[in-house]
Amino acid sequence: xxxxxxxxxxxxxxxxxxxxxxxxxxxxxxxxxxxxxxxxxxxxxxxxxxxxxxxxxxxxxxxxxxxxxxxxxxxxxxxxxxxxxxxxxxxxxxxxxxxxxxxxxxxxxxxxxxxxxxxxxxxxxxxxxxxxxxxxxxxxxxxxxxxxxxxxxxxxxxxxxxxxxxxxxxxxxxxxxxxxxxxxxxxxxxxxxxxxxxxxxxxxxxxxxxxxxxxxxxxxxxxxxxxxxxxxxxxxxxxxxxxxxxxxxxxxxxxxxxxxxxxxxxxxxxxxxxxxxxxxxxxxxxxxxxxxxxxxxxxxxxxxxxxxxxxxxxxxxxxxxxxxxxxxxxxxxxxxx
Length: 337
Prior knowledge:
Blueprint: H1 2-17, H2 38-42, H3 56-59, E1 70-78, E2 84-93, E3 99-108, E4 112-113, E5 126-127, E6 130-141, E7 146-159, E8 162-177, E9 180-190, E10 192-193, E11 196-197, E12 201-205, E13 215-219, E14 225-226, E15 230-241, E16 245-256, E17 262-271, E18 275-284, E19 293-304, E20 309-320, E21 327-336
Antiparallel strand pairs: 1-2, 1-21, 2-3, 3-6, 4-5, 6-7, 7-8, 8-9, 8-11, 9-15, 10-14, 12-13, 15-16, 16-17, 17-18, 18-19, 19-20, 20-21
């Protein structure tokens, strides 16, 4: 009964909150939409019903309590237009209380030349924007079939002497029985963001005013923008092929408050739970919608350093249609059982 109530609530979110392509480009905190972890990206985010441990933090925090007792993860992605994304997370299982984790994502834009009206080719100075998301996550396995979780996030952006900040929460649930799993997540429910700072101050003179009386500094007021919220549903199924071979297929539906609805598919093959091959595809469901990313591919290796300590190395490749270079994603994860 609990799972049906949860699904009803989430479908209500879709009708009230999601699916509005007319609001494309109107949200703030767009960094929240940049995915992390090579495995998740290689599978196009299609496994939020089955993903576990630290990799679940971005996709569905309900999976946090289903991972190893202690985990640490670092992920790096060469994104678009020479932009790089770094992500770090660490988490621990705390017995019957559940699991806690903290995560930190930053975006490196490189050095950008300062230009002005008088110096459109640059003043000789450079600046580096700072885009950061920090989160505290909690997950708990409430029964042998159901797990829940949530994340509280702080979003911060700064460009020269102006900055914007906001807060958002994610929450989700996973349900599994035998080889089948079902998951749902509500993401980025939070505050509006608006830039403030000295760069928005303008020195001007009012035409026709008496000498000196119309001079002053005026503060431009930036418009507030909501963060990009969305709702996701996912299913996955494990196929056991002999003892050493496993095959998993999954799908994910997303309804967003600021873009077209999306449908993603992913597959993963595992040999002895040591070597992995992955593929995925994420597509828009609206006619004439702008499709930015193409198919994804990935691979991974899981190696036991000691009886209870293992390390996983994962790689993902994602094509980008409007840029010459694809996304390359590398993830390293340490797990202590």
